[in-house]
Amino acid sequence: MTTVFKFGGASIKDADAIRNLTPLIEAHADRPLVVVVSAMGKTTNALEALLAAARDEGRGDDYRKRLDALGSSHQAIADALLGDEAQALKERIGNLVEALDDQHRRHRQGPFSRHYDQTVCYGELLSTTIVAEWLNRADVATDWLDARELVITDDHHQDANVDWKATSDAIRSQAGGSRNVLLTQGFIGGTAEGVSTTLGREGSDFSAAIFAHCLDAGEVVIWKDVTGLFNADPRRFGNAVQLKRLSYAETIELAWHGAKVIHPKTLGPLKQKEIPLTVRSFETPDAPPSTITSDTRFDTDLPSCILRDDQVLLEVKPKDFSFMDEPRQHDILGRLVEAGMHANLIDGGAMQLTLCLDNMAERLEPLMESLDADYTLQRQEGLTLLTVRHPSGSILERLSEGRDVLVERRNATTAQRLFRTVECPETWYIPD
Ligand code: ASP
Ligand code: MG
């Protein structure tokens, strides 16, 4: 049975990290093995900054500097991995960077989202080119596959929708049954016409699930810098506890509310085929992992806490002082969908709709502009959304004590509070 591994940016952030992949892959002798890889470290953020510079007439020098930095940082990793034998790989990296430059020239005047996908996909193209070369040199026979020819999507750029039939046909014909490791890119896909697309930020987990679903895989392993799923981000909460067994349903809730460990789209395709998902640490691979299946018996009532920073509160009121009735709500949420935005919290009153959104300027500004014609808008920034699953006792109140709370919502299983972000770095504790 096929196994799918997914390695995120942190697991391949430098030459040592890439070297560390070899034993993890070698330890898994069963084939087929599909390995889905993200861009290195923070490369996608760097590509987004490059894109902004490319689209700004006045920032030609900045653009050049960023492009050169992208090429040289990847070439430095090739040097560190292959030493004297890095030349051919460095040339391939140089060619990819030139192709990226060419894409910018072609798309910089065109629509943002299309330009985004034609250029940001180079993060994964670069990383997989390096990792494939490294694995082959390390005697792990590896085929490099172009995910843009396998994950077939529509042209809804930056958040493309998968054409499951076409994707399944393409993946099965190219990836079934091989004895070699099949290395491919997360996050990216392509239309039937061969135009590059992306699946949404942090979408590599979803890519792994797409490959697993199409190949009826026996297991997906997501390799992270944490040993599994926790009831809060262990980097922010001093007393976070690992959840070793979870159901798809509970994991979807946590991911949906912003637990960063797994992209929320990942679970659906796995649940449909009952493919277990394991989250393991690439730093301590022998540590007990977290495993997600359809079995709900191990879901606990332990509270889980999720913090989402950089939130915007948008209060929308009809200009003509009319009610916020269903047609109005329908209109506003329709514009939200059109802008490619998702509300992390929705609350309503007779005269207003309150939305809590991620502060993504390139989507938020067009949305504001569109709404501004028909509604009065009030916007506040610099907010944090706290979500507590299974909120026992006064946990929500205790966690947000002394904070300036702007919105609160709760139901039987989930409670949320939106408050002003406190600037200083701090460690949180889940009260008992
Ligand atoms: N490289 C992409 C990102 O940083 C996809 C991923 O990491 O999953 O968003
Ligand atoms: Mg990532």
UniProtKB/TrEMBL annotation:
Pathway: Amino-acid biosynthesis; L-methionine biosynthesis via de novo pathway; L-homoserine from L-aspartate: step 1/3; Amino-acid biosynthesis; L-threonine biosynthesis; L-threonine from L-aspartate: step 1/5; Amino-acid biosynthesis; L-lysine biosynthesis via DAP pathway; (S)-tetrahydrodipicolinate from L-aspartate: step 1/4
Gene Ontology molecular function terms on file: aspartate kinase activity; ATP binding
Gene3D superfamilies in alphabetical order: Acetylglutamate kinase-like (3.40.1160.10), Aspartokinase, catalytic domain (1.20.120.1320)
Pfam family, one: AA_kinase
Superkingdom of origin organism: Bacteria
Keywords, alphabetical: Amino-acid biosynthesis, ATP-binding, Kinase, Nucleotide-binding, Transferase
Enzyme Commission number(s): 2.7.2.4
UniProt record, GO biological process: homoserine biosynthetic process; lysine biosynthetic process via diaminopimelate; threonine biosynthetic process
Catalysed conversion reaction: L-aspartate + ATP = 4-phospho-L-aspartate + ADP
Record domain Aspartate/glutamate/uridylate kinase: where: 1-280
Enzyme's top EC category: transferase
GO cellular component: cytosol
NCBIfam families in UniProt: asp_kinases (TIGR00657)
Family of this protein: Belongs to the aspartokinase family.
Stated name of the protein: Aspartokinase
